[in-house]
Amino acid sequence: MESTDVVVLGAGIVGVSAALHLQARGREVALIDRAGAAGQETSFGNAGLIERSSLIPYLFPRDPARLVKYALNLLPEAHYHFSALPAVSPWLLRYWRASAPERVERNIAARRPLIENSLSEHEALIQQAGAGELLRKNGWIKLFRSQETLAAGFADAERLRAYGLHIESLDSAGVAALEPHFAPIAGGVHYRDTAAIIDPAALSKAYADLFVSRGGRLLAGDARSLSQDSDGRWRMATAAGPLVAGAAAVALGPWSDAIYGPLGYRIPLGWKRGYHMHYAAKDGARLNHTILDADVGYLLAPMRRGIRLTSGAEFARRDAPPTPVQIETCEPAARRLFPLAERLDPEPWRGARPCLPDMLPIVGPAPRHEGLWFDFGHAHHGLTLGPVTGRLLAEMMTGETPFIDPTPYRADRF
Question: How far is 225 from 11, CA to CA, in rounded Å?
């Protein structure tokens, strides 16, 4: 039977980053994923942003008129399955409570140390992995179609400038100067501190290749086989045979409940499903930045494969069949904004963003099981936060003084 110091469950960007940080601190690490490869699930299909400017969390809306439209599935930025309401409503209620205005500043204070260190932690790993060609440091642009929404967007930008961020307010001409192939639009906000990755799956693979090149093992296995022996060690089955470890770290994103649930933890993990589709561009048109069409609710990102259109949030059972109605709804609006050509994928990709009600991750020890650690629930910012929470987790697991206070991310805060 093989043994190792630590087994990390899940080879998405969060798990791979944690494995690299543990390895850098002298631990022998085995990285386990059911695919036997990195970045094949949630980390495959994101918008590719390292969101250095995203200090304000995605909040549950409070405007009654907008809530009515959501309830009627009239807004493309959000969609829900009526049949899933009994399952998802308790989580949505907790999300609504955690989004109360009086809690926002506390949430910003909790997420700020993670966000402010997100890009620097990525850059260190990107340099080590030789993956610099995947990184673009030109920010992203939030577009607005009316003067009313543009004014609200400018107000949000002004609030964030107080945190030292580099933000440029754009009128219609300013947008056209940066994106000359766009149709005329009221204006936008250019968040310049954010970086973009042109192939998120390739970044996860580059980090995993670095991990393996340094002696790490990436193995296929079913995380649900994890169990704790009487001596406190953790055992699981892999394609290479049984494996035992002194510690286990759960980085399974929306599937993390497969581990903590049977162990008796009641953690309010939900998910927001999302979709993407790639397109070619017509007549040599070029998209220079990642773009959020804020008034419609979709994002366009220049990727290696083509221009990726990503949807907003879908509230459904995690593993329910795909219903990519948001792609179908948003595609005509995207075509009117930018000259998209043919689809490049046979069908839309679907993923699930793992979310806690306060939109903060859980990073730290399992309260009742020695040697079990959690690193999941990164919501819309898994790519952004993977390396920084990986460092924080590794420091705690190896007895170092954490470089930031881990208290806001503890597992028992609920």
Answer: 16
2-45+201-268+357-413 has CATH 3.40.50.300 classification? no
Buried b (16+ CB within 10 A) or exposed e, 205-227: bbbbbbbeeeebbbbebebeebe
Structure tokens at 84: 């899933």
Structural contact between residues 1 and 242, judged by C-beta atoms closer than 8 angstroms: yes
State pLDDT tens for residues 152-175.
999 999 999 999 999 999 999 999
CA 286 distance to own-chain centroid: 26
Cα 397 versus chain centre, distance: 23
pLDDT in tens, 273-295: 999 999 999 999 999 999 999 99
pTM for this one?
0.96
219 strand-pairing partners: 32
DSSP letters along 163-202, please?
A: TT--EEEEEHHHHHHH-TTSPP-SEEEEETT-EEES-HHH
Contact 388, 14 (CB under 8 A): no
On the CB side of 358, how many CA atoms lie within 13 Å of its CA?
A: 20
Domain ranges of the chain: 2-45+201-268+357-413
- Give the strand pairing for 29-33 and 217-220: parallel
Q: What is the DSSP letter of 358?
A: T
CB-based burial of residue 73 (10 Å sphere; 0-12 exposed, 13-18 middle, 19+ buried)? middle
